[in-house]
Input
Amino acid sequence: MARVLVTGGCGFIGSNFIRYLLAADATVEIVNFDALTYAGNLANLADLQDHPRYRFIRGDVADRDDVRMAMQQGITDIIHFAAESHVDRSIHDSGPFVRTNVIGTQVLLDAAREFGVNKYVQISTDEVYGSLGETGYFTETTPLHPNSPYSASKAAADLLVQAYHHTFGLPTVITRCSNNYGPYQFPEKLIPLFITNLLQDQPVPVYGDGWHVRDWIHVLDHCRGVEAAWRYGRPGEVYNFGGRCEMPNIVLTKLLLKLLGKPESLIRYVADRPGHDRRYAIDCSKAEQTLGWRPQVPFETGLAETIAWYQTHMAWVASIKNKDYVNYYQKQYGQL
Ligand code: NAD
Ligand code: DAU
Output
C-alpha cells in the first residue's frame, strides 16, 4: 500500500490531484504537506478534511525539521507540487522562488534519500525549455533555457533531481506540463483572473500585443498524467504533458468575453511582462506512447465548466481577493 507525501496539496493542482487520486485508488493514503502561503488554501480540500485516508500537515519544504517530521509518517513515495508558481511575482521578488523551488527541492531530495522512497516525482513545467518561435514543439530532449526567475528556479530544481538520480540512484521522475486551467486556480493566472474580473464587469489586462501563445490543458488531464508518471514512469526519465491546444492570449480573451456575454471594451492592453516568453507548445507523444496517457478534456467543455465553477464559487473568490490580493493587484496593474 502506498502512503504518498503530496507537497503543495492546498494549491491549485495539488488539491485537484489529491481529490482525484483518493477517488481513483481506494488503497492509497495521502499526507498533504503545505506551508499555506498566499496560494495555499485549506478550503480547497474542505470536503476531504475527515477522509480516513487523508491527513494534512502544515510545514515548509525548505525546513529540514518540518520535512523529516512529515517523512516519519511512514511515507513510501513523494509527489512534489509545492512551489512559488507565478511568473509576475518572481519578477517582483525572486527570493521566495529560489528558497522554495530550489532549496525546498534539495531538502526533499535529501529526505527521500534518508528515508528511502519507491518513487520521487518532481512536478516541473514546460517553462524550463524557454520560448518557441512560430513553429516547433518542446520535447523531453529540448535544452533547458529558462527565461524568468520562476522558470530558472524550476530548471535548477530539475537539475538537482537529475543529479540525485545519477549520483545516488534515487528513483526520480520529472513531469513538465503546459498551462493548466480548471477549478480552484488562484485568480492571479490568466484564466481565473479574467473570469473573475469579468463576472464583476471589471477590465481584463492583456500583456503586450496579446499574441503570445500558450498550450492549455485541463488540470484533471495533468493529474492523470502525474498519476501515470508516478506508477509507470521509468526512474531517471522526464515526461512532457500538454493539451495539444495552442491559443494566442487575445483569442482566448475574446472567447472568455463571448462565453460570459461581456463587451470587448473591457479589454485593456497593458505593458508587456518583462522577458515574456512568446510561445509554448508541448510534444506529449512520449507520455502517450509509454504511459498510455492522453489529454481527454476538450478545451470548450473544460472552459465552460471552469466558468460555471467560478460562477458558483464567488464566496471562495471573495475570500481570496482580500487585502493582500488587492495590494498585489495594485502593484502589478495599477489603475486599469
Ligand atoms: P499554486 O501556487 O496554486 O500552489 C502552490 C502550493 O504550494 C500552495 O498550496 C502553497 O501554499 C504551497 N507552497 C508554497 N511554498 C511552499 C513551501 N515553502 N513549503 C510548502 N508548501 C509551499 O501552484 P500550482 O499552479 O498548483 O502549481 C503546482 C506545481 O505545478 C508547481 O510546482 C508548478 O511549478 C507546477 N506547474 C504549474 C502549472 C500551472 O499551469 N499552474 C503548469 C505546469 C507546472
Ligand atoms: O506553462 C506552465 C506555466 O504556466 C506554469 O509553470 C506556471 O506556474 C503558470 O503560472 C503558467 O505560467 P504563465 O506565465 O504562462 O501563466 P499566466 O496565467 O501568468 O499567463 C498566461 C499568459 O497570459 C502569458 O502569456 C501572460 C499572459 N497574461 C497573464 C496575466 C496574469 C496577460 O496577458 N495578462 C495577465 O494579467
Notes: The CA atoms of residues 179 and 230 lie 20 Å apart. Residues 85-87, 125-127, 178-179, 189-190, 193, 205-207, 212, 214, 249, 273, 280 surround DAU (ligand 2) (CB under 6 Å). The chain has a mean pLDDT of 98. DSSP finds twelve helices and twelve strands in the chain.
